[in-house]
Amino acid sequence: MITVREKVRFVETDLMGVVHHSNYFRWFEMGRVEHLRQAGVLLTDLLADGIVVPITHVDCQYRASAKFDDYILIETTLEEVSPVKMIFTYKVIKEVDGVLLATGSTQNLFTDNNGKIIRLSRKYYDKLQMSRDTKK
User: Residue 59: which domain range?
Assistant: First the structure.
């Protein structure tokens, strides 16, 4: 698991003064990208090698509301990785009191630039598998 710390921006809130629900998906992406980075897999390298990682499933369960200026922690875990897909889970927590704000998951496939599912090369797969095994 890796943790990303963020501060809720005013632009992320709605007319009710709480974080708009769509921002949780952005936060999931921030955690996922950082998890890949820490595993030694950069999205720019994947793209340069003609590998795209579209999301094929996403879900989020909202538990409590975050507000402007709250500090949040985005905990991201690579739950499953295979040569054709990866599944991440997420927890978004309010830092000050540990309140669980949301949980969720995403599934990404590995495709070529035309959207055809491909098998990830060992160059990347081994790094992802190692990061998953060492984070357990």
Answer: 2-135
Angle at 31 (CA atoms; ends 115, 12), nearest 5 degrees: 100
How many Å apart are CA 25 and CA 41, to the nearest integer? Answer: 21
Q: Where are the beta strands (DSSP E) in the chain?
A: 2-7, 55-62, 71-81, 85-94, 100-109
pLDDT one-digit tens code per residue, 27-66: 999 999 999 999 999 999 999 999 999 999 999 999 999 9
Contact call for residues 79 and 87 (beta carbons, < 8 A): yes
DSSP 104: E
Token readout for 100 is 């669980």
Q: Among all residues, which ones are annotated catalytic? A: 14
Domain count, the chain: 1
